[in-house]
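Morning F.,

Quick status update on the modeling queue. The single chain you submitted on Monday has been processed. Sequence for confirmation:
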Amino acid sequence: MRGFILALVFVVSAPGQQWVLQDSHSAASLRGIHSLGKGVAWASGTSGTVLRTTDGGESWQTCPAPPDSAKLDFRAVQAFDADTALVMSAGNGDLSRVYRTNDGCRTWKLVFGNPDKEGFWDALQFDGPGFGALIGDPVGGRFPVFITTDAGESWKRREIEAAPKQSLFAASNSSLSIVEDHKLCVGTGGGTTAFIADGVSSAIPMAQGEAAGVFSIASRIDGAARIFVAVGGDYKLPDQTTGTAAFRGPDGQWHAAETRPHGYRSAVAYDSASKSWIAVGTNGADISTDDGRNWRPFAVSERNWNSLSLPFVVGAKGRIGKLKP
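Structure tokens below.
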């Protein structure tokens, strides 16, 4: 296929290994990953890198880079099918952008640029094929939020009040989550660690500090209740376990994890097949089978992960893994 580099998977098997390592044919730091199922997934990272698979990771294609993106860091990718996707770069001012492809990444169109010179975008999420939200660090004391209802073709601005020294982390494109009725849920840090749901802020018992807080939130439905799990910590202290996870159960209250992940975690996701939560970070991964109350090490020999969209996980130097069944 013209314009693509084809990379075949190599499988590394070792005792206790939980991820089948893929050959991404890339050395980029990957932080964007979106698995659609039925073999389709997209990944993104530094130096304008966008990758795509349509065969469940048997091969990864290196997409032609979007225009003028060689110095951009694509921290987020959101896809609708094998041909249609958006990537979001994170950076100061004009370095934050959104590009869209409709033809399997052969060509790209710049659909949105950061209107705030002092702004910095952190996350891009979609709820279905039309409604999406993009959020960035505070500008003038308020989080800028941009909403699209036409799959990224146009955007409208909203704002959420921010506390002093409060910010977001663009580590895994999962500090923002969209739940029923297009409600936006945000996990913050940078000095004020909180959970913001539909504009209403509540305290969350996790690490606090300039480099600490919530890095990722995810949820699942349990009967009539929605269970939330948050992970994070301090990325400058990757082996510190204090304040690395919390959960919100059916009582609607946030609780600190009783047995914490064994280090800073940048992403968390629920695996419905095994009825478990998986959290990943630079020093490894952990698993919880009781909705975030207790965690235990998972695939302890495998490190340097940034983000996950199961069954895939991505990290530094082009690392992509696929969860074993």
